[in-house]
Amino acid sequence: MSTHYLDGWRIDVERREGVPRLVPATVLARTVAAALAAAGAPRPASITLLLADDAELAELNEAHMGKEGPTDVLSFPLLAPADFPDHAGKRSGDGPLASPADGFALPPGARQQLGDIVVSVERAVDQAGAGRGGQTGDVRWDARDELRLLVTHGTLHVCGWDHADPAEEAAMRDLERRLLG
C-alpha cells in the first residue's frame, strides 16, 4: 500500500497481488484528489482506493449489491450525500448513512474517513480493449484512461454523486469529462 497526502486528504492506494500496474499510484492518488476537490469533499479526510480483479469485484458485487458477476467499480461511502455541497448530480435522499451532523464529533484535527473505492483493473483492461469504455460503453481508448475514469467515477460516488436519473447522470458524466481533460 502507498499513502499520499494531497490537499488535505490522505489517499491510500492498495494494489492486490497479481493486479497489473497500469498507472502509477501517485497518478491515481492525484486523480482521486481532483475528484474530491471538484466534489467539495471535507478536509482533512482519508479515502482508500483498492485495485483488485474481477473475482474480488464479483464477490463484493454479490455481497453488497445483490448482483452476480464482476463490475468495474464499487464505492463504499461513509458520509451521507448531505455532507457534501449541493450539485446537479447529487444522490437523491440520504439513505442509512450517518452524518457528522447526526451527533458524532471527531476530535480536533482528526481525519474524517470518506469511504473506500474498489476498482477491477481486469475489467478496465477488458472494457478498453473491446471499445466498451467511457461509462457509456462505446469509447475506445487506452486501459490507463479507463482506469482513471473508473477511479474518478468511484470517488464521485463516495462524495454523493449518482447517475440514477437522467439529470444526475448528465451532470456526473460532464464532471468526469472535465476532470479527465
Provide the fold topology.
Blueprint: E1 2-6, E2 9-15, H1 25-39, E3 45-52, H2 54-65, E4 73-77, E5 112-120, H3 121-129, H4 143-158, H5 166-180
Parallel strand pairs: 2-3, 3-5
Antiparallel strand pairs: 1-2, 4-5
Could you say what the CATH topology is called? Collagenase (Catalytic Domain)
The top-level CATH class is: Alpha Beta
Overall tally of domains: 1
| Shape, principal axes of CA atoms | globular
Main beta-sheet annotation? 5 strands, mixed
Number of helices: 5
Number of strands: 5
Question: Termini separation (Å)?
Answer: 27 Å
Reading the helices and strands in chain order gives EEHEHEEHHH
Name the beta content range.
15-25%
Unreliable spans = 94-101
- At the fourth CATH level, what is the homologous superfamily? Metalloproteases ("zincins"), catalytic domain
The largest sheet has its strands arranged as 1-2-3-5-4
Query: Given the helix and strand composition, which structural class is it?
Result: alpha/beta
